[in-house]
Design goal:
The protein is an alpha+beta fold. It has one domain. The chain has 3 helices and 6 strands. It has a 6-stranded antiparallel sheet with strand order 1-2-3-6-5-4. The longest helix is centred in the C-terminal third of the chain and has 12 residues.
Length: 94
């Protein structure tokens, strides 16, 4: 597994290039579960309180590479992180 990561503030981003999976999380790792959203996006929630703690994008390049701005907006709205922060953190990895 070729995993690269980037952190900016409380946002942590990991990208597994071999599997084409992008992981974004806020804060420390927390036990949780995922709800499926659009186009291979999983919204990860805390088991304790259901609060959104991360986003996982399966087949990121296949599903989102040409629509990255829409993906950055989705993550921004979901996690409360400015879109520019999401973009900077993801772009250095992909």
């Amino acid at each position: 597994m070729a995993l690269a990561n980037e952190s900016e503030g409380t946002l942590r981003v990991d990208f597994d290039a071999d599997e084409d999976v992008l992981y974004l999380s806020v804060g420390d790792p927390t036990p949780g579960y995922a709800d499926e959203a659009a186009d291979g996006v999983l919204l990860r929630r805390s088991s304790a309180d259901g609060k959104l703690i991360g986003v996982t994008a399966l087949d990121f390049r296949a599903n989102w590479i040409l629509r990255r701005n829409a993906f950055y907006s989705l993550v921004s709205e979901s996690l409360g992180i400015p879109p520019a922060t999401v973009e900077r953190s993801v772009e250095v990895l992909i």
